[in-house]
Amino acid sequence: MKNIDDLMTSAAELAERGLSKGEIADELNVSRETASWLVERSDGPQAESTQEAAPGGPEDIHVDWNAIGRDSNRLGHVGAAMADLLSKQGEEVDLTIGIEKAGAPLATTVARELDTDLGTYAPRKHQWDDDDMDDLGGTFSRNFAQIRDRDCYVVDDTITSGTTMTETVQAIRDQGGEPVACVVLVDKQGVSDIEGVPVYSLVQVIRVGNDE
Length: 212
Fold this sequence. Notes:
GO terms for molecular function: DNA binding; orotate phosphoribosyltransferase activity. One of its GO terms (biological process) is regulation of gene expression. DNA-binding transcriptional regulator that functions as a regulator of central sugar catabolic pathways. It comes from Halorientalis pallida. It is a single chain. The chain has 212 residues and is α/β, with parallel strands linked by helices. It has two domains: 39 residues; 139 residues, 3-Layer(aba) Sandwich (Rossmann fold), CATH 3.40.50. The protein is 35% helix and 20% strand. The protein is built from seven helices and seven strands. The protein has a seven-stranded mixed β-sheet. α1 crosses α3 and α2 packs across α3. 42% of the residues are buried. About 5% of the residues have low confidence.
């Protein structure tokens, strides 16, 4: 199990490799605020030496599903379980959209199980570092299937705040498509729908405790 020092070390290593803070958030399955805090507290090249980070840090939950992702057999079984959650949602769906990066391999297994085409979406957070997110935009990969006014499923690994899933749903609609349902491995927020689209998860994380 990773502790906070391990996460800081990982954040520093990823920063040294040139990843943006948004990409680091994606790699570590934490919020953008947590990723920024980890980088600033680490010794990475993006550390802010002139500003001391808040000692307590953001409140977040780190999700490590490496035991699934590193094994194609396990990944296939998990993808089948995620596909099962979607199987009764829309008889005419013939496209599965995976949110890059980690959602793409999961979407591949889901698409195979449900016999759909496969597309991928790179969210704007991958470009985010310290600039305003409102000035950035996500993209659908031209190497995979395009929306073309089709109904589709949306697949990702985790929901942390719901921002990326919301962005993806809106981007699909902007392309003339209609998201029928979303599925993730882990939902940190316990959401039932996003923008009117039902959301399913294999695991929901619920915080229990005093908010004081």
